[in-house]
Design a protein that fits this description.
By secondary structure, this protein is an alpha/beta fold. The protein has a single domain, classed as 3-Layer(aba) Sandwich (Rossmann fold), CATH 3.40.50.10900. The strands form two sheets. Strands 1-3-6-7-2-8-10-9 form an eight-stranded mixed beta sheet, with helices on both faces. It has a two-stranded antiparallel ribbon with strand order 4-5. A hairpin with a 2-residue loop joins strand 6 and strand 7. Helix 1 packs across helix 5 and helix 2 crosses helix 4. The protein is globular, with a radius of gyration of 17 Å. This is Proteasome assembly chaperone family protein. InterPro entries: Proteasome_assmbl_chaperone_2, PSMG2_sf.
C-alpha cells in the first residue's frame, strides 16, 4: 500500500542516535493523565538507562524541558549496553495529525535499524468503573503472537478508534514486519495518574521480564508531578474532558 508523501511545508521529525537500538522499543507519549509518560520515565530511572539519542522536531512549536537549570530534548531515547531494549520518552505534546508524521519517522528509523517491535504505554480518559482498572491491548497479529499468547493477562480492547502517533504506528505495523502493541489503561483527570502508571509499568514488566519494582513509583510520581505540572495543564487545554470518550469501548 503506497503512502502519500509528507507535506514539505509541514512538521518534520528525524531520529538521531548514538548507538544501535534494541530489538524492542517501549514508548510513552505526552497525553491526558500522563500515565504512559510517567511509566516510561520510571522505567528509565529504575533500569538506570542512559540517553542515547533524540527526535529532532522542525516546523512544530516545541518545548524545551529542563531540570535544575539543565535543558534536555523533548523526545529522547534511552538504552543500556546489557539490555536489548530502547525506551522512548516523548515530553513534547504532538497533536494527532503531526503525530502520524512522528510515527512515520520512528518506524522508518526502527526499520532501518532492524528493530523487531514497538510497544506504546498509554492512558485513555474514558468513563469506567473499578473493574476496568486494568491494562488492555490493541496490537498487530505478529505482536500478539510473539508477546500476548502465553501466560499474559492483558485482554484486548473491545472496539474503538485510535489517532495520532498510536494510530500511525499501528497502521504501519499492519503493513510491515514490525510488531506493534499499544497498551492502554483508563486514566483520571489528575496528572500524573499514579495508579494508571503503575498498571502500565506492571504490564511492561510482565511482558518484557524487566525485573522492575513498581512499588516506589508513587514517591517517584510526586517528583514527576512537580516536573510536569505545566505540561499537564497545556495538554488538558488541548484535550477537553470527554473528547476521547467514544474512541474506546
Amino acid at each position: 500500500m503506497s503512502r502519500q508523501p509528507a507535506d514539505p511545508t509541514g512538521p518534520r521529525f528525524s531520529v538521531e542516535h548514538d548507538s544501535q537500538p534494541g530489538d524492542a522499543v517501549i514508548a510513552g507519549f505526552s497525553s491526558f493523565g500522563l500515565a504512559g509518560l510517567t511509566a516510561v520515565d520510571y522505567l528509565v530511572d529504575d533500569l538506570d538507562l542512559e540517553e542515547t539519542g533524540h527526535v529532532r522536531i522542525d516546523g512544530l512549536p516545541s518545548i524545551t524541558p529542563f531540570t535544575k537549570g539543565t535543558p534536555r530534548h523533548p523526545i529522547r531515547l534511552y538504552s543500556a549496553p546489557d539490555l536489548d531494549l530502547t525506551v522512548l520518552i516523548a515530553e513534547q505534546f504532538v497533536p494527532p495529525m503531526p503525530g502520524e508524521l512522528l510515527a512515520d519517522a520512528l518506524l522508518d528509523w526502527t526499520e532501518a535499524n532492524g528493530t523487531e517491535e514497538i510497544a506504546v504505554l498509554a492512558g485513555v480518559p474514558v468513563a469506567h468503573g473499578p473493574d476496568a482498572h486494568r491494562t488492555f491491548h490493541v496490537a498487530t497479529e505478529d505482536y500478539r503472537a510473539a508477546r500476548l499468547i502465553d501466560g499474559t493477562d492483558v485482554p484486548p480492547m473491545e472496539s474503538g478508534f485510535l489517532d495520532g502517533a498510536n494510530a500511525g504506528l499501528l497502521e504501519r505495523g499492519l503493513e510491515s514486519p514490525l510488531g506493534v502493541g499499544v497498551f492502554v489503561t483508563p486514566v483520571h483527570a489528575q496528572a500524573p495518574d499514579v495508579d494508571a502508571a503503575v498498571r502500565l509499568v506492571d504490564t511492561a514488566n510482565a511482558i518484557y521480564e524487566l525485573g522492575v519494582d513498581a512499588a516506589p513509583l508513587e514517591a517517584f510520581a510526586e517528583e514527576i508531578r512537580r516536573r510536569y505540572e505545566d505540561l499537564a495543564e497545556r495538554i488538558e487545554e488541548r484535550e477537553p474532558e470527554g473528547s476521547y470518550d467514544r474512541m474506546y469501548m
